[in-house]
UniProtKB/TrEMBL annotation, chains A, B:
PROSITE patterns cross-referenced by the UniProt entry: HTH_LACI_2 (PS50932)
UniProt source species: Pseudonocardia aurantiaca
Signal peptide: none
One of the record's GO molecular function terms: DNA binding
Domain HTH lacI-type: residue ranges: 12-66
Protein name: LacI family DNA-binding transcriptional regulator
Keywords, in A-Z order: DNA-binding, Repressor, Transcription, Transcription regulation
DNA sequence: CTGAAAGCGCTTACAG
DNA sequence: CTGAAAGCGCTTACAG
């Protein structure tokens, strides 16, 4: 059996290069950074020496001297949520162009893990931070001092006076709800995220306002915003509240969970239960039926949030009020008029 | 309008703490790292000083002295591919436990971006690297020297003699193909990934062997392994090859794209075209019909790959041969016997 | 246009 | 059990 172990000969430094080129270390530094005047001859000599000795710059040395690392943290709750994966991709593209590294950190939506990860990030002396706070986050404005540029994305947090980028959740959720009301639905279940998350609060507000304006009764349940959680939740609400003919999904995983739960109960979408999701996913476009959904502009949110961080890094003033990027309702085929089934109890259709 | 700019007062260092506690800097260091003998009294004094002056360790200083950063890179092609998102999550969990930071890098499946990102990672003097190489990667074993511990995940690369973690792709793909053959299908389209990717090569081999053993004709097409790419590809192959009654999807996004393409063509799954996917996704379990799929053990692959890096970091020997984690076929409802439609041209069903 | 000196924050030998 | 000294690799003033 062939085996390998971690190797590692001492690597070349600016000094090695300097010695090889017959110049000083800071001349090497000047050539590499492209700053200050260097004669063309010296420049060529140095570059030749760089390849000759196989020199690779050491970011750690540079960062120590510069007091800041050209790195921005992105602290989210779960990378397997496609919304955050797309957010990471959009943010990374902006930063890469500017020569900044993006460091991804997972909080698992846990308050202590969040603090721990933030402490880790802080130890690298990053230039900035993009943060989607954990549900019961204990972070304060003081905790975010020292990150220089800090910006909230998607979720906000009471008492954190930091710029933020969000969607027009109340309006978008209101529109989604009215789509169902207009189709004739009166008993519409809203399957939301964690009760105290700002995203839940804002989306619930839009839902309640629309439902109450139509003289209907709000039917909400809270979940951990995962598919399995939503699957259990929708089944429970169907059993405890008779006559539900429509549902609203908090995010893409929750919308998945609702469809799974409906299937568990032997209910069809949209014939038995109409559905509107919040946050699009590729499969929703060709699912039978294609799912009507509020498209969250995740790329735009990511780019804007990244730009705010860059502006703050550059010392430009940034508005402290939330920056709102509007979502749009994509009308597909998962909403139809309620059927007569709505009058029978769901348990009668179970096997 | 309230405005904020990036702040940042000079932060406390070990010296600040030392002065406050009336001890030396390296005593502070000893207390913080928990190494060597320190009297209980000194220890208490130092810890009090740490909170008093608001000290936060600087990883940059530590890394410079230690020559290695407690950081491992994970270089993948696209974080919005759920397989890689889950891989990141699994790997991160293992490393977090060991106090290692995971740094996510995107290559966009581009050879130059891959080199660029690797160079960036190298500048941080990381302790290791987990790599899913780009399709036309130009990396050599030499390029990976200096990363100490390097391990390939999911994809391998000819000429790279580095430990790797893969699935039993030929066997699993063979089994998936035989499921379709056994149901009576003879014209089975395999919608694969990029032609030169090791994953494509291995899965195609399993497909071809099974098809040829059954005396049928292989029908393969290559894609960029994204949903939109697969959507175009399946439509094209349906038009150029008459009588196709079944399809095999290379990964989750490709399986999505196949379903979208079938819908475009007015074809139903499974009545008109049976389907088997490679790599599971949550929505596949309750899609109508639930999709039969080869489940890739992504968490197990991630944990194993992470463990190999840890072993190499610890100087333990690691087998250079590929480490194979077996996938399993999940039989759901997207495979049925071919119908008579198979005798009509797909264009006749278009509107 | 180029170089000698100092220091970023930390930890590793080496002395007491 | 504790401290004075040196140095990790780089870049920033400061001189020539």
């Amino acid at each position: 059996m062939a085996t390998l172990t971690g190797g590692g000969e001492p690597s070349a430094t600016v000094k090695t290069v300097a010695a090889h080129a017959g110049v000083s270390a800071q001349t090497v530094s000047r050539v590499l950074r492209g700053t200050g005047y260097v004669s063309e001859e010296t420049r060529t000599k140095v570059l030749a020496a760089v390849t000759a000795v196989g020199y690779h710059p050491n970011a750690v040395g540079r960062s120590l001297r510069a007091a800041r690392t050209p790195m921005v943290g992105l602290l989210i709750t779960d990378i397997t949520n496609p919304f955050y994966a797309s957010l990471h991709k959009a943010v990374e593209a902006v930063f890469r162009e500017r020569g900044l590294t993006l460091m991804l950190l997972n909080s698992d939506d846990d308050r202590d893990t969040e603090r721990q990860q933030l402490e880790l990030l802080r130890s690298y002396r990053p230039s900035g931070l993009l943060l989607a706070p954990a549900v019961h986050s204990s972070l304060t404005t003081d905790d975010l001092a020292g990150f220089g540029a800090a910006v909230l994305v998607s979720r906000t947090l009471r008492g954190l006076s930091v710029p933020s980028v969000v969607t027009n959740e109340p309006e978008a959720m209101g529109e989604a709800t009215r789509t169902l009301l207009d189709a004739g639905h009166r008993r519409i279940a809203a399957v939301l995220g964690p009760q105290d998350a700002s995203t839940t609060v804002r989306r619930e507000a839009g839902y309640r306002e629309a439902v109450l304006a139509a003289g209907a009764e709000p039917l909400v349940c809270y979940t951990d915003q995962t598919g399995p959680g939503a699957r259990t939740a929708i089944r429970h609400v169907l059993h405890t509240h008779a006559g539900i003919t429509a549902a609203l999904g908090f995010n893409a995983p929750v919308t998945e969970g609702i469809l799974a739960g409906l299937r568990d109960e032997g209910l069809r979408c949209p014939q038995d239960v109409s559905l509107v999701g919040f946050t699009d996913a590729p499969w929703m476009a060709f699912y039978p039926p294609p799912i009507t959904v509020v498209r969250q502009p995740v790329e735009a949110m990511g780019r804007l949030a990244a730009q705010l961080v860059l502006d703050m890094v550059d010392g430009k003033p940034v508005a402290a009020e939330p920056h709102v990027v509007p979502g749009t309702l994509l009308r597909r085929e998962s909403v139809v008029a309620p059927s007569s089934r709505s009058l029978t109890s769901p348990s009668s259709t179970q096997r």
